[in-house]
Design a protein that fits this description.
With 227 residues, the chain is α/β, with parallel strands linked by helices. 27% of the residues lie in helices and 37% in strands. It has helices at 3-11, 28-37, 50-62, 67-70, 115-118, 133-143, 162-171, and strands at residues 18-22, 42-46, 71-74, 77-78, 83-92, 95-100, 108-113, 124-127, 149-155, 174-182, 185-193, 206-210, 213-217, 219-226. A hairpin with a 2-residue loop joins strand 12 and strand 13. The two termini are 28 Å apart. 33% of the residues are buried.
């Protein structure tokens, strides 16, 4: 169990829940959720990239013949409306990574559906979709009142202030926790209550290069739990 899984064990209520793993990649966290929800729970992995879909399907088959009833795979992306989205695909050590974008060459087009159509009875949603969360979250919060916990990987994207997203979650009655590394052991994540006024300026970034241009990558793991 890695640091993210241990943190989720600490802060998420999972046993018996219906978990939507949105942006499931190769299914590592889906497998963790499948074990954590137990026999009365269910997991839905949502992933649009064929190589990753194959990896998730392999995990489901490995989990046994009864797993298919409690672990489903939706082969698409999420979007505000039914249709298609264009994605940039990048190979990484942990699988094939993809993000919704209209910029650049060699983009792939994949089917997309609203989250509420894919998992209308979700109670816990893990959302890691490389910046597309800002297009999805407002509608999903309004359409899916049964979700009591959102596990979010928020990305620093120009035009989407962090405080606006955190404020939206607060308006819907959620308390906010973020992950922070222990100073004496960076591999351990701690739960840090955060205020909805937190801005990206307060989050340390990692220098990176995108499209040949230098920049700074910022990301924050946030759990929003219903009070």
């Amino acid at each position: 169990m890695d640091a993210q899984e241990r943190w989720y064990r600490e802060v998420l209520r999972l046993e018996g829940e219906v978990v939507a793993d949105v942006g499931a990649n190769v299914g590592r966290l889906s497998a963790f959720f499948f074990e954590a929800v137990g026999p009365k729970g269910r997991v839905v992995s949502i992933e649009p990239i064929p190589a990753n879909i194959a990896a998730i399907d392999k995990r489901i088959r490995k989990a046994g013949p009864r797993a298919k009833k409690r672990w489903q795979l939706k082969r698409c992306a999420v979007a505000p409306t039914v249709g298609k989205v264009r994605m940039r695909v990048v190979n990484a050590a942990w699988g094939t990574n993809a993000m919704v974008t209209s910029e650049g060459d060699e983009l792939v087009e994949v089917a997309a559906r609203p989250l509420v159509d894919l998992v209308p009875d979700a109670t816990v949603v893990k959302l890691d979709i490389e910046g597309q969360e800002y297009a999805i979250l407002p509608g999903a919060l309004a359409e899916m009142p049964g979700v009591h916990t959102w596990a979010l990987e928020l990305h620093g994207v120009e035009g989407y202030p962090l405080e606006e997203t955190l404020g939206l979650l607060k308006e819907h009655g959620f308390e906010l926790l973020a992950a922070g590394q222990r100073r004496d052991d960076p591999k351990v994540w701690l739960s840090l209550p955060i205020d909805s006024t937190l801005t990206w300026d307060a989050i340390p970034g990692t220098p990176t290069t995108r499209d040949g241009l230098p920049g700074v990558f910022k990301m924050l793991h946030v759990v929003a739990r219903r009070r």
